User: Which sequence fits this backbone?
């Protein structure tokens, strides 16, 4: 992929991806020791505070250089300079700023803007080498920060591959430079796109957070992108040390050895298993790699021996280092299994992470034909269908228990046992139900099958028959709508509604006579020939929902 404009790639992705820098925060400006910073940060001159800017080519508008001696006089302790991006962009101002900041007495640092992608190992190592070739050695050099990876974009990689990409880059940079590199990112990317802090915990964290303090593990905090620093034209990022002051000497001096002891990987993170028919799919996120890259994973399935009660290994599979899921087949449906995952590097096998017990089953789905609704006096038909949710295969000849809920007590009563037909359907017809109710269908699965249950409301509405006394009328002449409700009960509220302005509006209200009948008389008006639309709505009562008549069209002429 060709590189994006260097002016945009340094911080623009952060501003688009998160809402850390609010307009209110941007309005706050604190000026101290030559710095104007829109952030809740301590001034550079405050005792014990170690801070400094990080810059890229866009801190050189119209080719203007940075006066690093002026920057140093503001009280800044360090400066970090963008070196590279991907494998095709080099900051043309890198060497001048990298060396100039050190000559001015600042601790200098550098960073690479990452462009993650596939293939993971090849692209990560290629970018690491491209960066280090530009950087030169930082080991054995005093007043120089470790190299840094600026990780703000996923490149379309999901969590596991993205974490593996970052680990590969960081481990390669450490191998090439002898120093433990920094990882730069921002809170939402850290928690969502990466979401695996244990895998990256051995690398110091440089966190951008403009509206509050960053993650507790942060070593450097970039607290603003809108600082004003003498010697630098325009707004600039500012960061400060949040780790212990004692750590600064190790962080800022490449002459101090910081070796890693040989270590196997940690336990894989977020290990989960999902059962299926005679199988399960196990997934995980990468662990801390240990002192060397992860070379692969081992996934095992165990179950309890029914005689001894002890775990017994029943299946195992190997997975390469760049895949983070495995399917284990040949399992017995209805038997619970525990799955474990371990990672390996050249130092050995790491700690295992295990799932809770998971039971493989034949997955079953029960679907409802349609919401059940009927008008008082009509029958209601309710059907459900059984199928396998993995393959969609229909399940004929399966027993389904049917229960009905009492509309008064809410208790469930067994009605009958149904058997699915050749297309997987099982259903029942309710003969003229008197009240709204609910039916519950239950597939009591045999051993090794997943059960299924659906509750289906059966809505019974009151009936409302309606008729116009005429279908055409002149403006201002009276017309009637009359009818009867079902059941025929007196004293029930009915409403005449008219449709206009895209809504139904109530024109009149009334109550039914003792025989359930009603009459509305009205005189529609119009200046142009038009068709007006009316309907009757009867209120719900006695455990039924409101009923609505058919729509009545009335042609009205001037």
Assistant:
């Amino acid at each position: 992929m060709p590189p994006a404009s260097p002016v945009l790639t340094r911080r623009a992705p952060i501003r688009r991806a998160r809402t850390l820098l609010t307009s209110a925060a941007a309005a706050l400006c604190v000026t101290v020791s030559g710095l104007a910073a829109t952030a809740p940060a301590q001034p550079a001159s405050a005792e014990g505070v170690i801070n400094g800017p990080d810059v890229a080519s866009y801190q050189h508008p119209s080719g203007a250089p940075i006066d690093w001696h002026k920057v140093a006089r503001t009280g800044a302790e360090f400066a970090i300079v963008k070196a590279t991006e991907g494998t095709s962009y080099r900051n043309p101002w890198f060497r001048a700023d990298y060396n100039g900041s050190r000559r001015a007495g600042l601790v200098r640092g550098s960073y690479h803007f990452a462009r993650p992608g596939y293939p993971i190992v090849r692209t990560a190592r290629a970018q690491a080498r491209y960066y280090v070739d530009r950087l030169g050695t930082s080991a054995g050099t005093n007043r120089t920060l470790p190299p840094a990876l600026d990780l703000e974009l996923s490149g379309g990689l999901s969590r596991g591959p993205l974490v593996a990409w970052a680990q590969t880059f960081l481990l390669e940079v450490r191998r090439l430079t002898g120093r433990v590199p920094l990882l730069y990112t921002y809170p939402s990317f850290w928690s969502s796109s990466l979401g695996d802090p244990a895998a990256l915990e051995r690398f110091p964290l440089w966190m951008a957070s403009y509206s509050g303090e960053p993650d507790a593990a942060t070593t450097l905090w970039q607290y603003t992108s809108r600082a004003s620093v003498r010697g630098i034209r325009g707004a600039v990022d500012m960061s400060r040390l949040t780790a212990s002051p004692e750590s600064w000497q190790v962080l800022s001096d490449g002459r101090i050895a910081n070796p890693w002891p040989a270590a196997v990987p940690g336990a894989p993170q977020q290990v989960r298993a999902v059962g299926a028919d005679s199988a399960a799919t196990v997934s995980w996120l990468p662990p801390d790699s240990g002192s060397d890259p992860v070379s692969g994973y081992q996934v095992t399935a165990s179950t309890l021996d029914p005689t001894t009660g002890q775990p017994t290994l029943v299946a195992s599979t190997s997975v390469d280092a760049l895949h983070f899921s495995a399917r284990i087949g040949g399992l017995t449906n209805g038997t619970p299994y525990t799955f474990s995952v371990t990672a390996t590097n050249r130092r050995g096998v790491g700690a295992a992470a295990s799932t809770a017990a998971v039971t493989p089953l034949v997955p079953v789905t029960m679907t409802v034909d349609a919401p059940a609704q009927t008008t008082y006096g009509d029958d209601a038909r309710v059907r459900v269908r059984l199928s396998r949710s993995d393959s969609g295969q229909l399940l004929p000849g399966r027993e389904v228990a049917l229960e009905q809920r009492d509309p008064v007590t809410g208790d469930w009563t067994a009605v009958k046992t149904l058997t699915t037909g050749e297309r997987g359907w099982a259903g029942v017809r309710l003969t003229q139900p008197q009240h709204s109710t609910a039916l519950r269908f239950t597939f009591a699965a045999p051993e090794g099958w997943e059960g299924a249950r659906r509750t289906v409301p059966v809505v019974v509405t009151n009936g409302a028959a309606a008729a116009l006394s005429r279908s055409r009328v002149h403006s201002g002449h009276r017309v009637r709508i009359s009818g009867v409700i079902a059941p025929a009960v007196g004293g029930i509220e009915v409403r005449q509604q008219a449709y206009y302005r895209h809504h139904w509006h109530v024109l009149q209200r009334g109550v039914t006579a003792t025989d359930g009948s009603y009459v509305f008389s009205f005189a529609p008006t119009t200046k142009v020939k038009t068709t007006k639309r009316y309907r009757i709505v009867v209120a719900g009562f006695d455990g039924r929902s409101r009923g609505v008549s058919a729509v009545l069209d009335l042609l009205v002429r001037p």
Q: What stands out?
A: Residues 1-46 have pLDDT under 50 and may be disordered. The first helix runs from residue 6 to 9.
